[in-house]
């Protein structure tokens, strides 16, 4: 059976006391009612990572939302993968559509970021997904295939082994409009096929592919029941412990 994963992307939300309270609520609940079949990851803003690493407990793993492509140096305001690993991060989200859109991150840059993350021992959560316009033009499969080819499939088999893929249709992110379970399943199956072609059937079978885009406490069960959906990358609904815990417990 493939790994089942629920990851919360907090984006630029929460003060430090609020972040502490949220992690504390999650950790307490997961300690009292452990989930054995789901890996839980949270991705808080940079300044909170070191402290939350001490406070999150064993049931939660820590991710960053981004990293710089260089290891160290004169890059004012940036944070390297090595720094993230040194404060207890295990994952880093790369290629999120907001980074691509607002920070002009393209596949060439993402290639460097992936390499830096892997070299530092971080496991990448690589995001892909089409815009509404691309879906309406029916070029969404081609577009996602190209994103994977350009941004991800340059990795060696050994490197790719560490990757989690997140399919996040841009039109569903933060919009309240989620992909139907049919739309999610067909794209996840397609992504798995691309992995099989780029690597092999075994890699395709074991790579976790998460769905992201207005996934919430109400629709998670139906989405997670899809054969090729191995969990979710959750934005808005990860900011409230009750909602996030319901999503974590949405696997059949
Ligand atoms: C995201 O940005 O990764 C995301 C899935 O956001 P939301 O759940 O709020 O749509």
Automatic annotation (TrEMBL):
UniProt keyword DNA damage present: no
Pfam families on file: TIM (PF00121)
Q: Which reaction does it catalyse?
A: D-glyceraldehyde 3-phosphate = dihydroxyacetone phosphate
The alphabetized UniProt keywords are: Cytoplasm, Gluconeogenesis, Glycolysis, Isomerase
| Top EC class, one word | isomerase
Sites where the protein binds substrate: 9-11, 174, 214, 235-236
Compartment(s) where it occurs, according to its Swiss-Prot or TrEMBL record: Cytoplasm
Say yes or no: keyword Ligase present. no
GO MF, one term, reads:
triose-phosphate isomerase activity
Active-site residues per Swiss-Prot or TrEMBL entry: 96, 168
Main subcellular location: cytoplasm
Pathway assigned to this chain's UniProt record: Carbohydrate biosynthesis; gluconeogenesis; Carbohydrate degradation; glycolysis; D-glyceraldehyde 3-phosphate from glycerone phosphate: step 1/1
- Highest taxon, organism lineage: Bacteria
What is annotated about its quaternary structure and interactions? Answer: Homodimer.
Instruction: Give the record's family classification.
Output: Belongs to the triosephosphate isomerase family.
What does the UniProt function comment say about this protein?
Involved in the gluconeogenesis. Catalyzes stereospecifically the conversion of dihydroxyacetone phosphate (DHAP) to D-glyceraldehyde-3-phosphate (G3P).
Matching PANTHER family? TRIOSEPHOSPHATE ISOMERASE
Name recorded for this polypeptide: Triosephosphate isomerase
Its lineage opens with: Bacteria, Pseudomonadati, Bacteroidota, Cytophagia, Cytophagales
């Amino acid at each position: 059976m493939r790994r089942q994963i629920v990851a919360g992307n907090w984006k630029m939300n929460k003060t430090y006391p609020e972040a502490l309270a949220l992690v504390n609520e999650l950790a307490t609940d997961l300690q009292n009612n452990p989930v054995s079949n789901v890996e839980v990851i949270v991705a808080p803003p940079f300044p909170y990572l070191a402290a939350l690493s001490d406070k999150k407990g064993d049931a939660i793993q820590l991710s960053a939302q981004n990293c710089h492509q260089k290891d160290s140096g004169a890059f004012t305001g940036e944070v390297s993968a090595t720094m993230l690993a040194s404060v207890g991060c295990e994952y880093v989200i790369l290629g999120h559509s907001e980074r691509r859109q607002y920070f002009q991150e393209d596949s060439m840059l993402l290639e460097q970021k992936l390499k830096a993350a892997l070299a530092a021992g971080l496991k990448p959560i690589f995001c892909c997904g089409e815009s509404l316009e691309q879906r309406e033009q029916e070029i969404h499969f081609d577009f996602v295939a190209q994103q994977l080819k350009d941004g991800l499939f340059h990795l060696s088999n050994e490197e790719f082994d560490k990757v989690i893929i997140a399919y996040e249709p841009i039109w569903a992110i933060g919009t309240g409009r989620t992909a139907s379970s049919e739309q999610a399943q067909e794209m996840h199956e397609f992504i798995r096929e691309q992995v099989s072609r780029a690597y092999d059937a075994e890699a395709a079978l074991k790579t976790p592919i998460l769905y992201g885009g207005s996934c919430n406490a109400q629709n998670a069960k139906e989405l997670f029941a899809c054969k090729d959906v191995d969990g979710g990358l959750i934005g808005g609904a990860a900011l409230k412990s009750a909602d996030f815990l319901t999503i974590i417990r949405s696997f059949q």
